[in-house]
TrEMBL record:
Keyword tRNA processing: no
Alphabetical list of InterPro entries matching this protein: 3Fe4S_ferredoxin, 4Fe4S_Fe-S-bd, Fe-S_cluster_ET
A molecular function (GO) term: iron-sulfur cluster binding
Origin: domain of life: Bacteria
Annotated ranges, domain 4Fe-4S ferredoxin-type: 1-29
Name recorded for this polypeptide: Ferredoxin
PROSITE patterns, alphabetized: 4FE4S_FER_2
Function: Ferredoxins are iron-sulfur proteins that transfer electrons in a wide variety of metabolic reactions.
Keywords carried by this UniProt record: Electron transport, Iron, Iron-sulfur, Metal-binding, Transport
Any Pfam family matching the protein: Fer4_13
Length: 62
């Protein structure tokens, strides 16, 4: 599954990158982005990142 980071809401704290670096990275604008699909073994870490985002900028894509 893939995640989407709302670039207008993201404050660039990097929490998601620290929690799931195989799925999130910081872009050139110092905002997080989901750059690759979450593997089944990463989904719990990604879900924790979704819940932990201080501005609720991350959501699962369907």
């Amino acid at each position: 599954m893939r995640v989407n980071v709302d670039q207008n809401a993201c404050i660039g704290c990097g929490l998601c990158v620290g929690m799931a670096p195989d799925v999130f990275r910081m872009n050139d604008d110092d905002k997080a982005e989901g750059y690759q699909d979450s593997a089944p073994e990463n989904e719990s870490m990604v879900q924790d990142a979704v819940r932990s985002c201080p501005v609720s900028a991350i959501e699962w894509e369907e």
